[in-house]
Amino acid sequence: MKLASIDVGLKRIGVAICLDGKIAVPQNAILRKNRNQAARDINTFLQEWEVEKLVVGLPLDADNSEEMQRRIEHFVSLLELSIPIAYQDEQNSSVEAKELTMGVFKHKRDGKIDSIAAKIILERYLKI
Asked: Potential cystine with 12: which of 45, 72, 95, 111 (Cβ 3.0-4.6 Å)?
């Protein structure tokens, strides 16, 4: 089953994909100009890769988790998907992504960290 995951942020959406059920690979992040554009870009990505299930990172037990959960769930509702959606705890995935890549490349706001966080979210889901 082809799986994809997203790490929804206010400025960027990290994206990762798993084609074989074993290896998650980060993809280019989607720079978010507005919700509708970002939703279209995610839909296009999912269709191009023929993704069969979407895993969405959701913050659990964070200080602002209720507000972010609401925003993420609203964004997912804009996707109008016909594939199953699963939610996975994303707690500290961005921090872990930064630690993993320390010294590997310069940390810019280009979305690489966001997509590595999406990869971590997908890997956590695959371990379930």
From this structure: 111
Structure tokens at 107: 């940390």
Query: What integer is the mean pLDDT of 68-97?
Result: 91
Instruction: For residue 20, give every residue at least 6 positions away whose Cβ sits within 8 Å of its Cβ, in sequence order, or none.
Output: none
Paired with 99 in beta bridges are none
Given a contact cutoff of 8 angstroms between Cβ atoms, the answer to whether 62 and 68 are in contact is yes
CATH of the domain at 67: 3.30.420.140
pLDDT of 67 reads 87
Q: What is the pLDDT of residue 128?
A: 58
Burial label, 121 (beta-carbon count in 10 A; 0-12, 13-18, 19+): buried
Overall number of domains in the chain: 1
Report pTM: 0.88
Residues of the domain holding 18: 3-126
